[in-house]
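Course assignment 3, question 2. Fill in each field.
Student: A.L.
Task: Predict the tertiary structure for the chain below.
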Amino acid sequence: MNDNSPSPTPRAELSLAFLLLRLFLGLRTLIAGLEKFEANKTFSFSNYSENMGRIGKAIADYSIIPAWATNLFAMSLGFMLVIFGAAILLGIKTRASLFLGGLVYVGLGFGLMAVQEGEGVAWIGMQVLMFAVALTLVRHNRFACTSEGRD
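Answer field:
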């Protein structure tokens, strides 16, 4: 039997592929943000301030990036990761959330480049690549809280 009908478009597969990326990136980003608030198995704003102050100082001490810039980025990092992670996970303003979340990871990669942490840069680069792939598939976003980005 010869079937000459055109093959169906793989919309369901693309939607599922995008969902997998969105779930992974949302969870990864959310958990990365929550980790910034943890010390000794407790979560608090004082832990966050201490953790991020230490990270900002270390990057400034071992790179060409000025302390004011590293501290500004470090002190806002956890909040950005939690907000963008939750938004990506829930499918809220998906395009913007993916793009801005990806930019946060580009910033993290830049900080690691500045301190010559090649292995960390490679890991961050893989996550940036996943954000880029997710952005190319966002039009297949069928499982979201808002209608933006759906086909």
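Instructor remarks: The chain has one domain: 26-140. The radius of gyration is 19 Å.
Grade: pending
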